[in-house]
Amino acid sequence: MSGTVWDGPRFRPPAAAVLLVPVVLSFLVQVPAAIVIAVVTRQGVRLGLLEVVVAAIGPLALLASRRFPGPTVAVVAAAALGDLLIGPDVGPPYVAIAFAIALAVARGALPWALVSVGTVWLAALLLAPLVGLAWPPPRIAFTTVVLALCFGIGWFARTRRQRAIAYREDAARRRRDAEEAERLRVANELHDVLGHSLSLINVQAGVALHLLDRDPEHARGALEHIKAASRAALDEVRGVLGIVRGSAADDAPLVPQQGLADLARLFAGVRSAGLRVEVEDPAGIQQQLPPWPVQAAAYRIVQEALTNVLRHAGASRAVVTLAHELGELRVDVEDDGRGIGDAPPGGGRRDPHRRPAALAGGVMIRVALADDQHLVRAGFRALLEAEDGIRVVGEAAGGTELLALLRREPVDVVLMDIRMPDGDGLWATERIAADPALAGVRVVIVTTFELDDYVVRAVRAGASGFLVKDTEPADLVRAVRAVADGDALLSPGVTRRLLERLSVGLRETPDDERIAGLTEREREVLRLVGGGLSNAEIAAELVLSPLTAKTHVSRIMQKLDARDRVR
Fold first, then answer.
1. pTM confidence score
2. How far is residue 477's CA from residue 463's CA, in Å, rounded to a whole number?
3. Please, are residues 38 and 47 in contact by the beta-carbon 8 Å criterion?
4. Pick from 98, 100, 87, 95: which is nearest to 35 by CA?
5. Is 437 exposed, middle or buried (0-12, 13-18, 19+ CB in 10 A)?
């Protein structure tokens, strides 16, 4: 069948059979015939014995054909020539020469075979008349064709063997590639599960410690979130390891794992949230129960799809269809929702006890949270709303949802993860920086992984800050206030590596016209800004008032055409 690849076992004759069958066949054909001819023709003992010995040399020489195919074909060809010249022109052909040619060519000794057989055949044609042998042209032509056919059989066997070796090597390479890809997939999944879950636990733990004394109720909620996150992370890790441990058989994994049998419980939970779920399973797949890895993948797909419908679609009905097509399980989830574009105003969870717009005459900082993990957003919300002068005005689980939120609600600072569905954080940051209507919005990337490439891409996209999720809660609060005040903030490790990465480029362009346009004091301030200092720290370093330091920074940004301090 076209396109079908079969890596299963193939029949291969035993090595001993490949070696011994030509020896035995040629011996049984040649030696008994030589004995009978010697007795019938009464050639004498010596000549008869010589003929039998020559007849036996060829078959016995084939025993060395595996290790020495070239010398073997030379010896057998010489014995065949002797058999032609010393015996009567009767009896069977010298079969050993056919086997010797085919085996030599098949094992890569083609030059030996060509030279040996060509020399012997030419010698036979020249010496035959001298010993009284007269061969008619048809016999000469037939013998030549038979010898050529032996070469062709050997070449065919060699080509087939080489193709088989290449096929096995390619199959082994494909298996190695598939294993490597699977290892990488499992490593990435474990990396994501553990990284995101541990960062979530760290956020909630920081919130609990930060609020433990002044707001025990919120601290208790954070501890409950930690427990839920750790349980979910453990289940995720068990699920991944269950798939890894699963064999090709349909055995269940060694740890509990959600499969098609658990869909009923999932549907019940979704229905309790107000979404009517219908199931179409004409083939009865839920009763057939495919292998566990397939079940786990199908359950995850349905779970994520229904979660997205609940969150974003505004739907009242969803239909889950399970179908079996060409040996594959197909899962379709359709809903009657209107999508994100028509979502009701004020999307995202809101605190019913919203703080007033200003406290004690101060300016309220309006913050939006963008992260695909609800518990991370909940932790940030609890932390920020416990602070005076900060209010969380909305939440989003993806980039597209965040942009819709920003166009509905006035926002000063966005705390945003990078890895999100439906528009990642870098994509959303670029859109915010490019939209004149959102010019007052400052973005702080808060992500799990402190990767240099993420940092550079975030800064280029227009972010005003970059923090990791294990940042101390007090530092996160300070970052929000600093960015809202026009400062920029990078975590210490990020600042150090980013400056090292960019320092070479800065040294190579000392005569930049915009840098040359700065005053000496402004250059001093610029160097401190590049070191990651805030306005207050710059003021203390240069013995200035905070207002003067902020004025210098603003003028530098205007002269360098920078949107904020990061660029």
1. 0.40
2. 17
3. yes
4. 87
5. exposed
